[in-house]
Amino acid sequence: MAVKNLFDFLMALLLLPFLFPIIFILIVLSTVDTAQFGLFTQTRIGKDGKPFLIFKVRTMKGDQESDITTLKTHKITAIGNFIRKTKLDELPQLFNVLFGQMSFVGPRPDVPGYADQLKGDDRLMLKVRPGITGPAQLKFRNEEEILNLQDDPKKYNDEVLWPEKVKINLDYVKNRSFGLDLKYIADTIFKF
Asked: Residue 111 burial by CB count (10 A; 0-12/13-18/19+): exposed, middle or buried?
């Protein structure tokens, strides 16, 4: 864990000077495109079930940027659609990694009502910092498209996707290693 924590901190510290201009440009573009401040923050559940504010580039007009129940009713802008598909909206999370709230690899942090409600052995998932990427993120990289096809996206998420993500993330937590993390990072770079 010490190697992972050091890697996360040093990589965020090294990447931010190079990526900050891109993050800044994306925030400015998003501000103009959505007519709202382009940096979106939302409460997510982190390690040990503690809430924190996640940073993302805004891609929708409206206040509920990542709420699966509103994907069909909130307008993702044309620029926002490109930013989402390329995962550039995730770049500000380098600050979350730098602040020790997130890791490069781990279970994706969910909004309150999911990870914080886990029971029994499933709570093992909360023993690690959430990640920008991870095995469940890679498996369901087209999650928005899947949810948009459903009549009831929230029900489908709660009954199908969420239980599968919990299984995948528990397996990750039980078998994690620095080498495996490097593989997930490489897979993320080459598959997205």
From this structure: middle
Q: Which residue has the tokens 């382009």?
A: 38
Give me 160's structure tokens. 């199908």
* Spatial separation of the C-alpha atoms in residues 37 and 127, rounded to whole Å: 33
- DSSP output for 137-182: HHHTTTHHHHHHTSSSHHHHIIIIIHHHHHHHHHHHHHH--HHHHH
The CA distance from 111 to 121, in Å, is: 20
Domain ranges of the chain: 2-191
Pair of tokens at residue 26 = 């994306």
Please tell me whether the overall predicted TM-score, pTM, comes out greater than 0.85 for this model: yes
Which tokens belong to 11? 């990589």
Listed in sequence order, the DSSP H helices in 56-141 are 78-85, 93-98, 135-139
- Other CB atoms within a 10 A radius of the CB of residue 41 amount to 14
Structure tokens at 20: 């900050």
Residue 10 buriedness (CB in 10 A; 0-12 / 13-18 / 19+):
exposed
The model's pLDDT over 37-81, given as tens digits with 9 standing for 90+, comes to: 999 999 999 999 999 999 999 999 876 555 555 555 468 899 999
Is residue 46 within 8 Å of 102, Cβ to Cβ? yes
Are the C-beta atoms of 88 and 57 separated by less than 8 Å? Answer: yes
